[in-house]
Amino acid sequence: MTTEQRYFYGLGRRKSAIARVRLYPGEGTVVVNGKPMDEIIPRESLRNEILRPLVATDNMTNFNIQVRVEGGGVSGWAGAISHGVSRALVAYNDGNKKLLRAEGLLTRDARVKERKKPGLKRARKAPQFTKR
Length: 132
Prior knowledge:
Blueprint: E1 8-14, E2 17-25, E3 30-32, E4 35-36, H1 37-40, H2 44-56, E5 63-70, H3 74-92, H4 96-103
Parallel strand pairs: 3-5
Antiparallel strand pairs: 1-2, 2-5, 3-4
C-alpha cells in the first residue's frame, strides 16, 4: 500500500460475469456501471451479498465502491462484485485475507451452467417417455 495510490483494485468472477472493482477512500457509496447499486441490483439479498466482505472486515463506511461489470445476469453480477470487493480489500490490507478466506469470500465459485447434451432437451432433462 502506497500513500499516493488513489484506489485498490480487485477482479471478481461468477458464472459468466466479470466485475472490475475499485475501492476509493470514502463514506460507503456503491456505483455499478455508472448508476447507484439500488437501481442496478433489484433484490435486497443480492445487495447484502455485495456488501458482505465490507461487513465482515468492518469497513462499511471506509470505502466508496466503483464497479464495472459485464456478462451474465444480476445474480452472477452480485457474486462477481462480492469476489472483486474481497480481493480489493486484500490489496488494501493483507490482514483481511485470513478473515475473508474463513468467510469463504475469496474462493471463486466455479459453478457454471452445464452444457446441453445431444438427445436431451436441456443438460439433463430427457424428452417425455411414452410406453405406447
